[in-house]
Structure formats: structure tokens, C-alpha cells
From TrEMBL:
Assigned keywords, A-Z: Membrane, Transmembrane, Transmembrane helix
Organism: Thiobaca trueperi
Transmembrane segments: 15-41, 62-87
Protein name: Putative transmembrane protein PGPGW
Domain of life from the UniProt record: Bacteria
Family matches, as InterPro entries: Uncharacterised_PGPGW_TM
């Protein structure tokens, strides 16, 4: 297996150098952008049981659409970068989480809350927030423990 990888790298030296440079660039961008993105999350984002409406809904429809397209492109770029960082240098899991927060897809809110209920993930995000002078995020309540719905 390793011989096959080394052979491929030898045959594609230019591509290998480009990938190494891209990996280094993504690493630097993630180091610079993750604290900013973590600081922008409202502290109640994960603790509320229901999804909030976007603050940008009041914009002109074309401006709102352009902003959503940009936000989703950035989110999917971060997810892809995070996947690369799982095997390359960088903060892969945090980058994937920040990409998930920015992108829109069905089941996103449930997935975000499940990821944020992991103490290690929430601790890493809160560490980034503390470095930016932001209060820690409130942990999501475990379904059933803090629900205001009556039990049946």
C-alpha cells in the first residue's frame, strides 16, 4: 500500500506539491477563521430546542439569496477542508463543525445539537470563544431531561 502511494507521488510530483501547499494554506486559513466564526455563534444557539429565524430574512430577496449562496459555499468549503484536515495538519473536526454551522441542509439543527452535546467539541468551541472574549455556549439540553413538553 505504501509503495503504491509513493509510486503515485513520484509520478505526480507537481500535483503532490500543490496539495501540500493547499494543505498549508487551509491550515493557516482555519487557524485564522475558526476563532472569528466561533465568536459569532450566539451563546444560546445550541441550548434552544427550536431553530431561530435568520437575522437576514428582512433583506431584499436577491441580497438574502446571494448571502445564503455565499454562506453555503463557505460552509461546504470548510467541511471539505475539515475532511482533508482529518488526515493532514489542521483542526479537522472544528473546521467541519464550523462548516456545518454555515451550510444549510435537512436535519442540520439536530446534527449540530448532537455534536455540541459532546463535551470535548463544546469545550473546544468555548476555548476559542474565551480567546475572543465571548461567553461560553450553553450546552444543549438532553432530550426529555429539560423539555418543557408534558410527559405522556
Amino acid at each position: 500500500m505504501i509503495d503504491g502511494v509513493m509510486t503515485w507521488i513520484g509520478m505526480h510530483q507537481a500535483l503532490s506539491l500543490w496539495l501540500a501547499g493547499l494543505s498549508a494554506a487551509i491550515f493557516v486559513v482555519s487557524l485564522l477563521s475558526l476563532p472569528f466564526l466561533a465568536a459569532r455563534i450566539p451563546e444560546y444557539y445550541f441550548s434552544d430546542a427550536r431553530r431561530h429565524r435568520s437575522h437576514f430574512r428582512g433583506l431584499h430577496p436577491l441580497a438574502y439569496l446571494a448571502l445564503r449562496v455565499f454562506k453555503n459555499l463557505l460552509g461546504w468549503l470548510l467541511i471539505l477542508s475539515g475532511l482533508f484536515m482529518l488526515v493532514l495538519p489542521g483542526q479537522g473536526l472544528l473546521t467541519i463543525l464550523m462548516g456545518l454551522l454555515l451550510s444549510d441542509f435537512p436535519g442540520k439543527f439536530t446534527l449540530e445539537r448532537r455534536l455540541a452535546s459532546n463535551p470535548r467539541v463544546l469545550g473546544a468551541i468555548n476555548w476559542l470563544r474565551a480567546r475572543s472574549g465571548q461567553p461560553p455556549l450553553r450546552a444543549p439540553s438532553i432530550r426529555g431531561a429539560d423539555d418543557s413538553r408534558p410527559s405522556s
